[in-house]
Each structure stands twice: as structure tokens, then as C-alpha cells.
Design brief:
Largest sheet: 4 strands, mixed
Strand order of the largest sheet: 1-2-4-3
Number of domains: 3
Order of helices and strands: EEEHEEHHEHHHHH
Structural class: alpha+beta
Radius of gyration: 37 Å
Strand content: 15-25%
CATH topology of the largest domain: Butyryl-CoA Dehydrogenase, subunit A, domain 3
CATH architecture of the largest domain: Up-down Bundle
Distance between the termini: 10 Å
CATH class of the largest domain: Mainly Alpha
Length: about 290
């Protein structure tokens, strides 16, 4: 299945201990490029990356993970009792020295830095598996989007290719008639110059020389070959990344079209060469978005 390299997905998942929010965005890139933001999940990030690489072979993948811990067992709570005892002792001594009553509220205690520690526990195996499964479900949405956009790009590519094929057929038809037309034009020109004694053999040699100088058949055949390669790569049954191959073929199409245009002498051929070049430019822009 041919895919594009762009997509976006956002999903929320809730278990008994976790609320997971996942954002995934994929963009164009020459290679696989992983960018992770969000919670520090340790080695689990490598598992997410590996799962992503199984389904996305090329493109920049940006991932944002937000976690909310719903279970009290997910947290560690501790009081620095040594610090608390020292504080109370020092404050009581100070109270006696200045003759003022000593009071300490819970609200005041909570404001003391480093007195109370609340830390998140390490994720359990079940929680890690839940996050990984949730990530894969979100990733499936991205893949579906990339496949859908890939189908649309293929539809557009086929339209461009068919127009190139049509213009190329016109060029080939005109070129095949050129030897006869060129011979007639050359005869008329020589007649106007009073060279009526030129033999048929000599005339054919002159025509052959001119046709060789402006021969377009090699470029026409190469363009046909590259078009056939394009059609093969965008068939529905193709199940591999083809973006780089199509980009290379588009460059080859452009090269042959430029040569064809430079050698052309007929105005209709030149016009169709320009049409082909415009279609190829559109193709080059589109294939750069394919995986």
C-alpha cells in the first residue's frame, strides 16, 4: 500500500491507574526521524520507537505523551521526620526565648521545602503494556491517514502520467511523419534554388543527415520506459516504500523531456514538450510526499 508521509492523530485512553493522552504527527523526511516529547518513561520510549518503525519506514514522527496517575498506589509519600523534629525543637526554643506562643499548622508544614516528598513510582509492567498498546492504536490511525492520502496522490499521479502519455503519442506521431515532410520541403527549397539536377539518392542522404541531427526517437523511447516504470511502482498491489524510486524516475523524466525539447524543431512538438515538463514538475512535488 502506497502511503504519504503526513498525518496527525490524538487519542485518550483510561485504565484503573492511568489516563493516557497521545499526540502523533508525521511529516516529510528523507529517512525515519523520531522526536519524543512529554513524560519521562525511560526504556519504554525505545519500545514505542521500535513499534513505530515497524509501521512507518520513512518520515519525521513527533510524539507527545501525557500521563495522569489515577491510583494512590502510583505515588510515594514521605515526611522528612528528622527535619520536622528539628524545626519544631528550634521553633519551641525560640518561642521560649522571645516569650511568644508557638503554633504550627498543617498548611504551614506543607509549604516548607523538602519537608514532604511526593514522588511518582516507576511504571508497572501492566502500565507500560497499557501505554504501548494505546500508542499502537494511535499509530494505526496515522497509518490509515497516510494510506488514504497515498491513494489520493496516486490518483493525481495517474492523471499527470496519462496526460504525459497523450502528449508523447502526439510527438511520436508527428516525428514519424517528419522524414517524408522534410524531404518534400527540401525538394521545394532546392527547386526554388534551381538545383533540379539533385539525384533522389543525394536527396535521401540529406534528409537522413537532418533526421539524425534532430532524431527524437531515443528520448521518446526513454520517456516511454520511465513512464512504464512509474505505472508499475504505483500499482495497488505494491507493498513497499516507493517514494525515493519515484523521485528518481521523475528526475529521469525531466532530463529526457528537456533533451527532447532542445532537439525539437516542430512547434507542435515543442508545445507538447512544454506540457510534459509542466506535468513532470507537478509529479516531482507530489512524489516527495510519499513514503
Amino acid at each position: 500500500m502506497i502511503r504519504s508521509m503526513t498525518g496527525f492523530a490524538e487519542k485518550n485512553f483510561t485504565s484503573s491507574s492511568l489516563r493516557v493522552k497521545i499526540f502523533i504527527k508525521s511529516l516529510n523526511h528523507r529517512f525515519f526521524d523520531w522526536v519524543y516529547k512529554g513524560e519521562n518513561i525511560g526504556d519504554l520510549e525505545n519500545q514505542l520507537r521500535a513499534a513505530c518503525q515497524k509501521k512507518i519506514l520513512r518520515g519525521r514522527v513527533e510524539v507527545l505523551l501525557e500521563l495522569s496517575y489515577l491510583s494512590p498506589e502510583s505515588w510515594e509519600f514521605s515526611i522528612n521526620q528528622a527535619l520536622l523534629k528539628r524545626m519544631i525543637g528550634e521553633l519551641r526554643n525560640l518561642s521560649g526565648e522571645v516569650g511568644l506562643p508557638f503554633t504550627l499548622t498543617l498548611d504551614q508544614l506543607l509549604r516548607v521545602p523538602q519537608l514532604i516528598n511526593i514522588n511518582q513510582k516507576e511504571l508497572s509492567r501492566e502500565e507500560k503494556n497499557y501505554i504501548l498498546t494505546s500508542f499502537e492504536k494511535t499509530l494505526d490511525d496515522i497509518v490509515k491517514q497516510r494510506e488514504k492520502e497515498g491513494r489520493e496522490i496516486v490518483r493525481q499521479l495517474l492523471a499527470h502520467l496519462n496526460r504525459i502519455k497523450k502528449s508523447l503519442a502526439i510527438i511520436e506521431n508527428i516525428f514519424q511523419k517528419q522524414p517524408r515532410e522534410l524531404k518534400e520541403k527540401l525538394k521545394k527549397k532546392l527547386k526554388d534554388l534551381n538545383h533540379n539536377n539533385l539525384s533522389e539518392e543525394r536527396l535521401s542522404e540529406e534528409v537522413a543527415y537532418l533526421m539524425q541531427k534532430f532524431d527524437l526517437m531515443e528520448e521518446i523511447n526513454r520517456l516511454k520506459s520511465h513512464l512504464a516504470g512509474f505505472y508499475d511502482l504505483i500499482k495497488p498491489e505494491v507493498n513497499e516504500p516507493v517514494g525515493k524510486k519515484l523521485d528518481f524516475l521523475a528526475q529521469e523524466l525531466s532530463r529526457e523531456a528537456n533533451t527532447l525539447n532542445a532537439k525539437a524543431q516542430d512547434l507542435v512538438i515543442i508545445k507538447n514538450c512544454l506540457l510534459i515538463k509542466n506535468e513532470i514538475e507537478s509529479i516531482r512535488q507530489q512524489v516527495q510526499n510519499l513514503e
